[in-house]
Amino acid sequence: MSGSLPSDRLRPYLVEDVMTSAVYTARPEESLLSATETMRRHHVSGLPVVETGGRLVGVLSEKDIVRAVDRQTGVGRARGILDLLLASLEPKPKDRLHESVAALLNGSVRDAMSHPAVSVEADEPFGEASRLLGKYSVNRLPVVRDGALVGIVTRQDVLKVLRGVAPAMARPRRRTARVSAVPA
Question: Is the pLDDT of residue 182 over 50?
């Protein structure tokens, strides 16, 4: 890599060249418990939230879920498992686990999601996705085409491209001008 900048590696790609097309999603009316189960089952830390028809309306992250549960139970103030264990020894212990499950069952994705979602268009240069991930300190960026979700790009995708391990389907695109023959 003689003299090339990391941003030079991003330049030849479009977002759609690197994005993941198969995306797990949540619906606004879905319970937080259902969305949390989807995230756990598929080992993801966030889900784009889409309406019927695929229109992107928000993003639900683990952080959003913790905030929503904290609003109802105060469990988010715990710094870790030790705080939760010690809280169970208080003179008047609250059943925080049951309260948290109730908050997940009764809470909706719509009430907890971040909106509007920070997103990127599929035909944007991949460097724009990298810039937005950094600017907004998010781990994932829904990819849209005309407002409809078509994929997702993560910080891991940026790192793969920077390391030269872009997905096999990603092929750098050369931007060339098309010249039409002009009749004489």
Answer: no
